[in-house]
Amino acid sequence: MVGRMSKVQQGNELLKRLMRNSLFVVGFAIVVVLVILAALGSFIVVHDPLTPHPEKRLLPPTGLASGWRGHLLGADPLGRDVLTRLIIGSRYSLAIGISAVLGSLFIGTVVGMLAGFYGGVVDNVVMRIADVQLSIPSTLLAIAVIALLGPNLVNLVIVLVITSWPTYARLIRANVLVIKQAEFIASARLIGGSDTWIMTTQVLPNVLTPLLILATQQVGFQILMEAALSFLGLGVQPPTPSWGRMIADGRQYIASAPWVVLSPGLALMITVLGFNFLGDGLRDVLDPKLRV
């Protein structure tokens, strides 16, 4: 009972520290709003995000003058409601970003743990592959792989995973190299623990904090990468809404109809900032090296 109460108290203290961190609060609020909009998008939008309406081409924003059924953020070059496409597009941005982070997190964790735990040839091979890949600009590598595989949602996630796993692998390896020298690892070996058991029950729990921080920050980066590839026509394919594609389609109208570009641009900026703030807040609270 004492141990259970202690865990509850630790949880409450952690929650209080998080709520006192302004970066975490702002980032958490932005991410929660984004998730709600993405989850409930089909229930709150009143316009079709795919059907063109030529008579409404480049219609200026009406704000709340016409109510929710108006075009609050205007219409795009094909007469489609910008706000509707932003909300529906957030689904794809979140789904792609989170899927890419989970995939690269899994591969990077497994590879990095093996490299750090066993060292030697395994470490040299894995780290040299990671070094070679990191020497190639991520966007250039992504463009090359997409050109080879073809542009679609599945291939887009695969590309983002391929370009991101070395970041996680290097982080895990560095932490494992330190942790495996600890006394509790030696004790686990003395009681007959297998390598797999030691890695999953003794090493992995001690690297979860830096992993969580990095993964949270990387969601924003992956969303930005998806937008960049969609802008180039290598990501989400039309007519599916995508923030990057919306910016690409509206860039020639930036002088006459700036809302077509500004709306997805601001949505992208706020989303990336939200995840970065969330990750920075978690780092400030959870990283013991930063505590005063």
Secondary structure elements and their pairing?
Blueprint: H1 2-20, H2 22-44, H3 82-118, H4 120-134, H5 138-149, H6 153-179, H7 183-190, H8 195-203, H9 208-231, H10 243-250, H11 259-286
State the gist of this model.
The protein is an all-alpha fold and 292 residues long. The chain has helices at residues 2-20, 22-44, 82-118, 120-134, 138-149, 153-179, 183-190, 195-203, 208-231, 243-250, 259-286. It is built from eleven helices and no strands.
Written account of the structure:
This protein is an all-alpha fold. It has a single domain (2-290), classed as MetI-like (MetI-like fold). 72% of the residues lie in helices and 0% in strands. It is built from 11 helices and no strands. Helix 3 packs across helix 9. The longest helix is centred in the middle third of the chain and has 37 residues, at 82-118. It is globular, with a radius of gyration of 23 Å. 37% of the residues are buried.
Which tags fit this structure?
292 residues; 0% strand; single chain; 11 helices; mainly alpha; MetI-like fold
Number of strands: 0
From the coordinates shown, what is the CATH architecture?
Orthogonal Bundle
Mean pLDDT across residues? 89
Strand content: under 5%
* CATH homology superfamily: MetI-like
Helical percent range? Answer: over 70%
Low-confidence stretches: none
In whole angstroms, the N-to-C terminal distance is 31 Å
CATH topology: MetI-like fold
Q: In angstroms, what is the radius of gyration?
A: 23 Å
Structural category? mainly alpha
Counted up, domains total 1
* Count of helix runs: 11
Biggest beta-sheet profile: none
Order of helices and strands: HHHHHHHHHHH
Shape: globular
CATH class bucket:
Mainly Alpha
